[in-house]
Amino acid sequence: MRRHAGQVGRVAGVEAVPSHAVELRKAGKFYGSGPARVHALREVDLTVETGEFVVLLGPSGSGKTTLLNLVGGIEPPTSGAVVVGGRDITGLSEDARTAYRRDTVGFVFQLFNLVPTLTAMENVRLVAELTGRGDREHARAALDAVGLASRANHFPAQLSGGEQQRVAIARAVAKNPALLLCDEPTGALDLETGRGVLEVLQDLNRQGRTLLVVTHNAAIATIAHRVVRMRSGQISEVTTTPAPGAAAEVTW
Ligand SMILES: Nc1ncnc2c1ncn2[C@@H]1O[C@H](COP(=O)(O)OP(=O)(O)O)[C@@H](O)[C@H]1O
Ligand SMILES: [Mg+2]
């Protein structure tokens, strides 16, 4: 039941209430000051619709991670506004931003970041615990959703890279976030295992979750609804994919 641009919030006969999943309004971010100032993001406007799968593509240093971090509430913008699910998170206090991040957003990173001394199940439960969903059943359902129920009691070192990333995805979705932010999720994986991870991400999107995925791998763009290209802290091009491909067929 994917919802798309134009359909969002529409009820017959009633004026649509805009409820975009993500809205960046002239969002900017700089680091440092004086001559050392780095403009990581410059007045970026971007709207992501609920249920959309958007890929952010661009060379290293183009501002992809910065954009993702603003949406995820890891840091605030230095100018402009960030609105997620209709809520303006721009000026939130540190505590409110932490709560927002914990309760609303699922993160997946390039290097999995699993706790090596905890099993797959325990890794998933640890984070889900923070939002009151740390019980065994939720965690098992999340591992099941990424095809790893049978690996629940394995430690990270006993899992392949692709499996570890799927545990990390299970950890992110166990708290049931509407929005999933992934930063180079296949960056440390070979084609075969990377493809498995993409299949899981595509499944999660088909179940209605909004996905914002950062990559420098153009092949991943073929499975997205929309590709946002970045260069020097700005959006250089946005393209809509008429018929996104199946993750199982991605190759690079
Ligand atoms: N914490 C930081 N302090 C200073 N500069 C930063 C920081 N984070 C990112 N940058 C700079 O901002 C620019 C964009 O970085 P980033 O968003 O990480 O790009 P990408 O993810 O596309 O590789 C780069 O020039 C980077 O060096
Ligand atoms: Mg990055």
Give a verbal description of the structure.
It contains six helices and ten strands; from the N terminus they run βββαββαβαααβαβββ. The chain has 252 residues and is an alpha/beta fold. It has a single domain (51-76, 94-249), classed as Rossmann fold (3-Layer(aba) Sandwich). The strands form two sheets. The protein has a six-stranded mixed β-sheet with strand order 6-7-8-3-9-10, with helices on both faces. Strand 4 (79-84) and strand 5 (87-88) form a beta hairpin. Helix 3 packs parallel to helix 5 (161-173), helix 4 packs across helix 5 (161-173) and helix 5 (161-173) packs parallel to helix 6 (191-206). The longest helix has 16 residues, at 191-206. The protein is globular, with a radius of gyration of 18 Å. The chain starts with 21 loop residues before the first strand and ends in a 12-residue tail after the last strand. The model is unreliable at 1-11 (pLDDT under 50). Adenosine-5'-diphosphate is lined by residues 31-32, 38, 40, 58, 60-66.
